[in-house]
Design a protein that fits this description.
The protein is α/β, with parallel strands linked by helices. The chain contains 15 helices and 16 strands. Helix 6 packs across helix 7 and helix 10 packs antiparallel against helix 13.
């Protein structure tokens, strides 16, 4: 299995630092507003990566941070006339709702920045003690000249990085020095520290959190490509200087941007589509397929024609999967004449799926294999197949889906029935409000004949089985 490493700019054989254990960290959201499809593209990509690594037998611990205190949050909260933590609390809940709706469930731990202030203060103290950081009137800055490897990830020389002014302050030693701690300003959240009340800089959050949970060196660090500089460059400088261990990360993995009409989707450009709005138009399975049609390192342009095509493909996949499940119930156990050719091709296609994913998580090639599997299944569904052959095909579909999440749960009658009863009870209530009692009583009586009893009450109508 090979994975592309941003730092070395090459595909490398993937070997975890400790046996088959993979420690993986991905930069999470800054929760000042609703997440958009650009975020969805990134988080779905790492969900696919984590799930495929687990499918390959690796024990993956997947950590994601949540930046719940930041300049953007403070500014946005002031606009909305609410506290920064009220805003970040609401947006964190919205973020969790969004990723659940996108079927992203591979993250082991979400770590909020505000809950790790002591770890950040401890790491800043270490950097000061090692002469990698200094104070200026209550602010603490990282001295980039004290870390000769600064620029190794973005492949820029220090003199080029100086052009990027970070945290402008004429009192800094170097224009490129970045903030580790910001002194308190009136009305802003603050924590006590050895340097006075204040709050952490953005970059120190991630290294304090990752060193705490993953140690001084771990396997995969992920994030969008625009975070390479200054954010990820700063992480390397902070962590390696503080711990003395190199490298901080074995594989740096970055996703390409999501664009809309060729422009990066961004809140600042006001050209974004929120995850919430997108999910009202397209199911999660469609969005996941749309994202997977592009390699995780490639840019993706928001294209409704491609989304409509993805919708049709998802419908076709689910129709075939449903039909195979239905056929399984009546299939014979004895081998059929079609079995050998059918199962041989299924095995070949499943192997091709693994080969594609083993080559830097090549999802477009893996999807091409899945569509070939769909075509192969459809060609044989009209012919007699044994239970063994159908189970083989279902296993292949479910194996691929354990990574991609395109299939919807096959509904059984016992799962659907309670929801149908809920609908009928709601309709009956609407009829009662309109004083159409004859029809509402008819629904009640007919439900009673199949053992469903409705219990009316002033607060809420309930039903139970007789």
């Amino acid at each position: 299995m090979r994975v592309y490493d941003t730092k070395t700019r090459e595909l490398r054989e993937f070997t975890p630092l400790k046996g088959n254990r993979v420690r993986m960290f991905v930069c999470g959201p800054t929760v000042y507003d609703l997440s958009h499809l650009g975020h969805a593209r990134t988080y779905v990509a790492y969900d696919v990566i984590a799930k495929y690594l687990r499918l390959r037998g690796y024990s993956v611990f997947y950590l994601m941070n949540i930046t719940d205190i930041d300049d953007k949050i403070i500014a946005r909260a002031a606009q909305l006339k609410m506290s920064p933590f009220e805003l970040s609390g609401r947006m964190t809940e919205e973020f969790h709702r969004d990723i659940r709706a996108l079927k992203i469930d591979s993250v082991n731990l979400f770590a909020k920045a505000s809950e790790h202030i002591p770890e950040m203060i401890a790491q800043i103290t270490t950097l000061i003690d090692k002469n990698h950081a200094y104070g200026v009137n209550g602010d603490i800055y990282y001295d980039i000249t004290r870390f000769p490897e600064y620029g190794q990830l973005s492949h820029q020389k220090p003199e080029e990085l100086v052009k990027h002014r970070i945290d402008p302050n004429p009192a800094k030693r170097n224009p490129g020095d970045f903030a580790l701690w910001k002194k308190n300003k009136p009305g802003e959240p603050a924590w006590e520290s050895p340097w006075g009340p204040g709050r952490p800089g953005w970059h120190i959050e991630d290294t304090a959190i990752t060193v705490n949970y993953l140690g001084s060196s771990y396997d995969i660090h992920g994030g969008a490509i625009e975070l390479i500089f200054p954010h990820h460059e700063a992480e390397i400088a902070q962590a390696e200087a503080a711990t003395g261990v190199k490298p901080l990360v074995n594989f740096w993995v970055h996703t390409g941007v999501l664009t809309i009409k060729g422009q990066k989707m961004s809140k600042s450009l006001k050209n974004y589509v929120s995850i919430k709005d997108a999910l009202e138009k397209y199911p999660a399975e469609v969005l996941r397929l749309f994202f997977a049609l592009s390699h995780y390192r490639s840019p993706v342009d928001y294209d409704e024609e491609k989304l409509d095509q993805a919708t049709e493909n998802v419908k076709s996949l689910n129709r075939a999967y449903q039909e195979m499940n239905e056929r399984l119930a009546s299939a014979k156990t004895e081998k059929a004449s079609e079995d050998e050719d059918f199962t041989k091709r299924v095995d070949e296609l499943l192997s091709a799926f693994h080969s594609a994913m083993d080559e830097d998580f090549n999802t477009p090639q893996a999807i091409a294999t899945l569509m070939e599997l769909l075509k192969h299944a459809n060609q044989h569904l009209s012919r007699p197949l044994s239970k063994e052959a159908l189970n083989k095909a279902l296993y292949a579909f479910e194996t691929v889906d354990s990574v991609f999440g395109f299939l919807k749960k096959v509904e059984k009658a016992e799962d659907i029935a309670p929801r149908v009863i809920d609908i009928l009870v709601d309709i009956r209530e609407e009829l009662r409000k309109k004083k159409e009692f004859a029809l509402s009583d008819s629904i009640r009586q007919r439900l009673a004949t199949i053992g469903v009893l409705i219990e009316d009450s002033p607060r809420k109508v309930k039903w139970r089985l007789a």
